[in-house]
């Protein structure tokens, strides 16, 4: 169930990235950075769940990689949608933003609030500071991309 859900989740992120790159380079880059910042802890969490379910490290990596490949399929579909259907990209962005909010509010917030850091030797204050540093880092990255998006250029050398 985790692998199937993660595959659909990754497909939707690929859709957003593909549609964003058809809009503009800066939109595609900012969406890619947002998806990366969102997916890194999510994939690590899925990896831990798969290990806890009894998979070997090799199996967990393989199944996690297979579900991650759905993002490439989603990206191809997103590029096609963004290229051939003009106003559908906004619906793709709305769907993906909803998924980001859902995962943040339903999955991450309860984990942050009910952390068992004290049982593992970490202070609650240190965990609080680390969590908020991560949130502020993500916010800062997105703010910098938004402020300097007109200066972002891709130099391919030709």
UniProtKB/TrEMBL annotation:
Keyword Glycoprotein recorded: yes
Origin superkingdom: Eukaryota
Locations listed in the record: Cell membrane
Membrane topology recorded in Swiss-Prot or TrEMBL: Multi-pass membrane protein
Listed Pfam families: Zip
Listed transmembrane segments: 61-82, 88-106, 127-148
An annotated Gene Ontology molecular function: monoatomic cation:bicarbonate symporter activity
GO cellular component entries: plasma membrane
UniProt key word ATP-binding: no
Record-level GO BP terms: intracellular monoatomic cation homeostasis; zinc ion import across plasma membrane
Catalytic reaction list: Zn(2+)(in) = Zn(2+)(out)
Keywords for the protein's UniProt record, in alphabetical order: Cell membrane, Glycoprotein, Membrane, Transmembrane, Transmembrane helix
Family: Belongs to the ZIP transporter (TC 2.A.5) family.
Protein name, entry field: Zinc transporter ZIP6
């Amino acid at each position: 169930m985790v692998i199937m859900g993660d595959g659909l989740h990754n497909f939707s992120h690929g859709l957003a990235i593909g549609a964003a790159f058809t809009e503009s380079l800066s939109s595609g880059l900012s969406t890619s950075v947002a998806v990366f910042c969102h997916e890194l802890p999510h994939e690590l969490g899925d990896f831990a769940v798969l290990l806890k379910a009894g998979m070997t490290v090799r199996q967990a990596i393989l199944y996690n990689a297979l579900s991650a490949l759905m993002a490439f399929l989603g990206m191809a579909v997103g590029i096609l949608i963004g290229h051939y259907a003009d106003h559908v990209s906004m619906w793709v962005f709305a769907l993906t933003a909803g998924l980001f909010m859902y995962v943040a509010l339903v999955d991450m917030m309860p984990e942050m609030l009910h952390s068992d850091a004290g049982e593992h030797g970490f202070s609650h204050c240190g965990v609080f500071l680390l969590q908020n540093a991560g949130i502020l880092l993500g916010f800062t990255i997105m703010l910098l991309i938004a402020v300097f998006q007109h200066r972002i250029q891709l130099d391919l050398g030709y």
